[in-house]
Design goal:
Layout: H1 6-14, H2 18-40, H3 43-59, H4 71-94, H5 115-132, H6 137-148, H7 153-160, H8 164-187
Helix pairs in contact: 1-2, 2-3, 2-4, 3-4, 5-8, 6-8, 7-8
Length: 188
Amino acid sequence: MQKMSDADLMRLVMQKHRPALEELYDRYIKLVYSFALKSTKDEQQAKGIVQAVFTRLWTTEKGYDESKGQFVNWLLTITRNITVDHLRQEKRNQLVVPVEPKRWEQIAGHSADNPADIVSRKLVREQVEKAYRYLSPSQVELIRSLYWEGYSLSEIARMRNEPIGTIKSRLHQTLKVLRNHLVPEMEG
């Protein structure tokens, strides 16, 4: 197996020949890991990306086409795409999701009978309602579509027939407005 080309090994991988995948893993583990580590700066995340890359090799239906370039470039493209997806997901998980005032009562963990929870929810709802006043109808609709209806930014752009850059810019401005009006109110 060690004398086989990357393309030959990938053809065997497409036929679910495990030793071929193991050989590709041995050849490229350091490259894939170092790329992922440099991008994430976290060893555990980099290991997860390595696993995802080689799982993708094992499960891909398209495979590698040697007429389109070198195997290593194809592999690094897969690694980059998986890393970008991972970083985007990580960023999404860290975003503060604005909650519509009417939905505060539906958040789990709040007891309807506890007076402190009732007062706390009421105060937070009032602050969110105040912050929403600073948003345009278009911004409110964007928040609703993105956070409550679950549409992606590209889906929202298609629905509104606007460039995705415009949607991203509007979201950035919207979150900035909410942050500016929620944080001082809640801290005070």
